[in-house]
Design brief:
four-stranded mixed β-sheet, 26% helix, binds fe (ii) ion
Length: 235
């Protein structure tokens, strides 16, 4: 995905994965924030890290299929979910309880730390990032496409980003290199637990990693992820 076209869904994996990006302001910089749409084995759709949906975006999703799940991947990426839930009233919301603590209007149908979700959607596996309760992120692995989905586990700025973020990224070491987000680096409370969480990914065949802020990582995604975390002492 190159320059951002808000509300436009791009097909990442034929018939299986689509993504859109929108601008979001965070801590004085303008990031790109990705929402992913994944077709599950039952034909219905899972929306990962939902944006507040526009009419144009809803029309594109409606042409693909019926949404059955909305996923809040950590305790920060909850802002668009109540509006998405209103647009898809039949969809269940999978989210960590920590997100509800920050957003009282967020409804949670299934706890992201519960095994209920994968019993109903066995082609997905959940990989919680332990030891970083500040983020409380859980990665989703989609076996049919060998794709790992995250939100803030790593990020990267490049020439497609707004100048505010490119400038801040040069100072914080996120310019054209995958990094643990600056605000997360000092919030790793249990490095051994975080390390075990990353090691749990080692056995997976991962063709691509899709996170919220940065391009799709399809060149050695697991190496990029582990290198970034090694820099903050998580080996
Ligand atoms: Fe984020």
């Amino acid at each position: 995905m190159r320059a951002m076209q808000p509300d436009v869904l791009s097909e990442i994996v034929d018939g299986r994965i689509w993504a859109s990006e929108r601008p979001v302001w965070f801590s004085g910089v303008r990031l790109r924030a990705r929402t992913c749409v994944i077709r599950l084995d039952d034909g219905r759709l899972l929306v990962h890290s939902p944006a507040p949906p526009s009419d144009a975006w809803l029309k594109q999703v409606a042409a693909i299929g019926e949404v059955s799940w909305l996923v809040v991947p950590n305790c920060f990426h909850h802002l668009g979910t109540p509006a998405a839930a209103a647009a898809f009233p039949a969809a269940k919301i999978l989210a960590p309880r920590s997100a509800a603590a920050k957003n009282p209007v967020l409804r949670i149908d299934v706890d992201l730390h519960d095994s209920t979700f994968t019993k109903g959607v066995p082609e997905m596996a959940l990989f919680p990032l332990e030891g970083v309760p500040f983020l409380d992120e859980t990665l989703l692995y989609h076996r049919p496409t060998q794709t790992l989905f995250g939100a803030d586990v790593v990020l990267r700025a490049d020439e497609n980003d707004h100048w505010t973020w490119r400038f801040a990224a040069r100072i914080t070491g996120c310019s054209k290199r995958w990094s643990v987000p600056p605000d997360v680096r000092k919030k790793v409370t249990d490095k051994a637990a975080a390390s075990r969480s990353l090691r749990a990914l080692q056995g997976l065949a991962i063709q691509r990693l899709m996170v919220a802020h940065g391009n799709v990582i399809d060149d050695q995604p697991l190496a990029r992820l582990t290198e970034a975390w090694r820099e903050v002492g998580v080996e």
